[in-house]
Amino acid sequence: MERLKTGDRIECSYAGTRFNGTYITSREGKAVIKLDSGYNIGVGSDTCRFMERPDPVGRPEISTTQNDSLPHLSIISTGGTIASRIDYRTGAVTSQFDADDILRAIPGLSGIARYRTTQLYTILSENMTPAIWQELAAAVYKEIKNGATGVIVTHGTDTMSYSSAAVSFMVDTPVPVIFVGSQRSADRPSSDNTMNALCSATAAVSPLGEVAVVMHASTSDDRCAIHRATRVRKMHTSRRDAFQSIGIAPLGYVDYPSLDIHLSPGAVRRGSREPAISPVLDESCRLLYFYPGMPPSALPETGEVHGLVLAGTGLGHVSTDWIPALKTLVDDGTIIMMTSQCLNGRVCDRVYDTGRDLLKIGVIEGADTLPEVALVKMMWVLGNEKDPEKQRLLFSSSIKGECMRRSLHGL
Amino acid sequence: MDYEKIGLLAGIEIHQQLDTKEKLFCRCPTLLRKTEEHSGEYHRYLRATESEMGEIDDAAREEMKRERKFTYYTYDSTCLVENDEEPPAPLNQEALVLSLTIAKMFGMTPIEQINMMRKLVIDGSNTSGFQRTALIAVNGTLPNGGRIETLCLEEEAAQRVEGEIFSLDRLGIPLVEITTSPCMHTPEEVREMAGYLGMVLRSTGQVKRGLGTIRQDVNISITGGARIEVKGVQELDLVADVVKREALRQQNLIMIRDQLLSRGAFVQPAPVDVTGLFTDTGSSILKKAKIILAVCLIGFSGLVGYEIQPGRRLGTEMSDYAKKCGVGGIFHTDELPAYGITTDEVEALHRALGTTEKDCIVLVAATPKQAHCAAMQVIKRAGFALDGVPEETRKMLPEGNTAYMRPLPGAARMYPETDVLPVLVEPSMWDSISLPELLIVRALRFSTELGIDEGLARQIAFSERLPLFERAVMERINPTLAARTILGILKEIQRDGADISMISDDRFIEVLHAVESGKAAKEAIPELLRMVAKGAGTDEAIKKCAPAISRDQLHAIITKIVDERAAFVQEKGNAALVPLMGVVMAEVRGSSDGKIVSELLRKEIERVCKSR
Fold first, then answer.
1. Residue A87 phi, psi dihedral angles, 5° rounding
2. Where are chain B's structural domains?
3. What is the tens place of the pLDDT at every residue in A117-146?
4. Residues with Cβ within 8 Å of residue B329, at least 6 apart in sequence
5. Nearest to A81, CA basis, from A191, A226, A238
6. Which helix (H) or strand (E) holds A114?
7. Considering CB atoms only, which of B49, B112, B117 is closest to A39?
8. In a structure prediction context, what are the per-residue pLDDT tens digits for chain A, which is 411 residues long?
9. Which one of A88, A103, A109 makes the best mutation probe of the B interface by having the most chain B beta carbons within 10 Å?
10. How many other CB atoms are there within 10 angstroms of residue A408's CB atom?
11. Would you tell me which CATH number, out of the four given (3.40.50.720, 3.40.50.1170, 1.25.40.20, 3.40.50.970), belongs to the domain A72-277?
12. Which of A362, A370, A235 is nearest to A307 (CA)?
């Protein structure tokens, strides 16, 4: 018997009747068949008989036109899905990456800019690595040097804030570099992809001049928030408005469907920086989330890592039992920075004894830097600056807005 | 009408909500709410996704033409799954087992591996833009020998509040969809089969009851006609009427087609602007309109006004099509002069258009955009008249007529719901499903085993309160008393304004026990239940409204009443019994059993008569 392939027309005998369908796949020992009614069912593969293998359906040739008078945007995709296409014949959902496909799926984009697309990676964002951040930074920098009015990076949402922070540290940009993704899959009519894409393109041609994340501001399709790359965090597993600015108001909003954009006075403006890239990262850094009773043995060995970020409790604490082990690490040259699991608020190790002990042995206060951002910052600082004194200076200052000099109220 | 001769073929698609504890894909209760209780709202747009064929579903494209903003009401009984803000939970096992039970009751074969699908629906009634649905079983049988093609388990859509506002309480309630083959040949057979399907579903004791919880779509065609799907027939009693009237409509449309063809009729392909002809018209609608367009239907005279269903004409069908463009309706010369349009104006119209009284002219008055759209719709529908019956989805109107809703949908756009894992129906699971007793069998058992009247037995077996009845019988309460109280008295006191939802099953049974043990009289049941509904305990209610009277006390009361009316009793003899019963019962206010009262009263009447 012919080995069945996806798309083959088959005939099945089931429940005393014969019916025709399309072979989809084999799952858990059953042949999954798409009936002509559209339903998939799983039945024993011995009930199915090969009928014919239809010619593959050619991709429709619907050309899209780009308006040369519009500003030029570069879209770099890393795996986040901005557009999908469904094959109702087989039920397959495929992600779309080239400019034509994206414009066909989201026609509104063609009124905002003309696009050039680069497919850098197709990976799930949990599989990102610092090495890919570096490649991404280089790709973004190249597009900036090539004169892009703005750059859009499509990215899986899970680790988008790590990547946006990394690019923010590595690249000085005079134009907007916008990270965007979707929380609800692009195949569904309710997906947030279209609105997020239109708002990100709007932000990418706007007077903004820094790296940002543009995603839904609320559960409604009414506006997207523009978040600073180094102050944003995914705060919900599934909601559209999962991305939130922490300790800072968003840099602005893009209303939908009007696409009116409002930037806050604090948003860095277009042209404020000269393009530059410092793409070195020291990957020998770790982030450790402390919990009550966590043994000091959870700490890396002496000399095992160059930098360590602690996500401590409250104002920035770990158990008193840890002090000797931490001292050994610091004395050995490991840079240790304290951040807080509270995410909101500032580390202050001068209030309680444990904190004072931590400072005494040389642990650096991470101010209000988010733990993940502190990790990325540490990789970048240790990679680009070898002088310990200058390193300390960089850690205690804000490079790309990652730490604030004042803690604002009302946020 | 000889339905066999006209080749009537009908099939049913039944949608029945299941009464499960939780929804199909989240753990929210299957609870319907009042819209004013909503806790919040949000707004969304839906967009159809491009398909591999490089096209968007026609129906979807139609929906997308207007940029539609949907509003959704949330409740404290809905969650992020209904909001399309969280992946679905695993398939509700209770709903799965229940749907398999129903499948087994119809003798169907389950699908070995159930695959959940996403069916594209972008009218706003599903927040995700698709409805989750799975084929559960195939190939069942009906008592008429017809076939049940499929049984699907799917999620209920959100309820439309008004316009583009939807309420999320209903979204996600499990629903079974049962589709029969076109195996019915008379309106009565359709009614009977729909009734049978409903009876089997209710036999599970686990389906929702009440208006809107079961919906029937009926597919109807006759020879030479076309397949028509009538949506949302909610009342069983109307099913036969819908079929009759649809068969009639198709017959008339075929007759109209034959006439049109014999007349050489045709439709002029473009409308003509006739606004200028009506500058001084007495018709307020024409006067107000920005533009008036005329559609010339050559050779159509008399047929546009021909009645195809009681109260509905071919012109009404054209009007339904035109209304899709937002106009209020149309005028046609078959119904003119009327509505302020004069004979002179009709003649002027014919002169200007070069038509005669053999032709029919349809007028559309609106804004230019709407009028043009509506005129093209009239031209489209008039064109269909030359072919006979167009395939359509229609909605039911109150008396069983139907009106155009939309073209029949094409093949459903479906793709796998990848967030829900396929479910294997193991043979052991299928075998372990026990079949509930059919309600018709149960009714028969009630009348033979419990000795209650056949009609009453059927009524109680089909009642929503069947479990209460069965419990009463288990507790050795007289079955007829239990059935009559449930079916009669509860309804009666509810009609009078009592909140019978406040009467728990326990209280209800206590009241019946009190009657059975002689603590209260049968006659006191309505008053006792009324008091229990207001929150009284059973003993408290008995004490207040029906303190038990001893036989001696009762005897004394009756003696007194009879003695006071001695002359009347002596005159009437035994005929005095009925009027005096009323007097005594009013006096003892239900504290005594009518049977005992009548027995004592009869003796007293005899005594007084003898003493004359």
1. -100, 100
2. 9-257, 266-385, 439-545, 551-610
3. 999 988 888 999 999 999 999 999 999 999
4. B319, B322, B323
5. A191
6. strand A114-119
7. B117
8. 458 888 899 999 998 888 899 999 988 889 999 998 889 999 998 888 999 998 876 666 666 788 889 999 999 999 867 777 777 777 777 777 777 778 878 888 999 999 999 999 888 889 999 999 999 999 999 999 999 999 999 999 999 999 999 999 999 999 999 999 999 988 888 999 999 999 999 999 999 999 999 999 999 999 999 999 999 999 999 999 999 999 999 999 999 999 999 999 999 999 999 999 999 999 999 999 999 999 999 999 999 999 999 999 999 999 999 999 999 999 999 999 999 999 999 999 989 889 999 999 999 999 999 999 999 999 999 999 999 899 999 999 999 999 998 998 876
9. A88
10. 9
11. 3.40.50.1170
12. A362
Backbone angles phi, psi at B139, to 5 degrees: 65, 70
CB of B85 within 8 Å of a chain A CB? The answer is yes
Q: Which ipTM did the prediction report?
A: 0.93
Note whether B109 contacts A14, CB cutoff 8 Å.
yes
Q: What pLDDT does B598 receive?
A: 86
The number of beta carbons lying within 10 Å of the beta carbon of residue A291 is: 11
Chain B positions touching A88 (Cβ under 8 A) are 51-53, 413-415
Per-residue burial over A343-374, b = 16 or more CB atoms within 10 Å of its CB, e = otherwise: beebbebeeeebbebbeebebbbbbbbbbbbb
What are the CA-CA distances from residue A104 to residues A64, A84, A194, A277, B56 (Å)?
A: 7, 10, 12, 34, 11
Is B83 an interface residue toward A (CB < 8 Å)?
A: yes
Of A88, A89, A238, the CB nearest to B86: A238
Using an 8 Å Cβ cutoff, are B436 and B104 in contact?
no
Q: For residue A123, what are the CA distances in angstroms to A79, A120, A375, B408?
A: 5, 10, 22, 42
Give A89's contacts in chain B (Cβ within 8 Å): 52-53
Fold of the domain spanning B266-385: Gyrase A; domain 2 (3.30.1360)
Q: What CATH class has A9-52? A: mainly beta
Structure tokens at B311: 């109260």
How many whole angstroms separate alpha carbon B216 and alpha carbon B177?
10
**CB pairs < 8 Å spanning A and B:** 163
Residue pair A75/A99 in contact by the 8 Å Cβ criterion: yes
Does the model's pTM come out above 0.90?
no
Q: Is B497 helix (H, G, I), strand (E, B) or coil?
A: coil
B74 lies within 8 A of chain A by CB: no
Residue B20 Cα, gap to closest chain A Cα (Å)? 24
Residue A100: strand pairing partners = none
* CB A365, CB A359: distance < 8 Å: yes
Domain ranges of chain A: 9-52, 72-277, 285-396
Q: Which residue of A has its CA nearest to B411?
A: A37
Query: Which residue in chain A is spatially nearest to B140 when comparing CA positions?
Result: A15
Q: Do A39 and B84 touch (CB under 8 A)?
A: no
For A102, the closest chain B residue by CA position comes to B50
Q: Which CATH number fits domain A285-396: 3.40.50.150, 3.30.390.80, 3.40.640.10, 3.40.50.40?
A: 3.40.50.40
Select from B44, B60, B119 the Cβ nearest to the Cβ of A190: B44
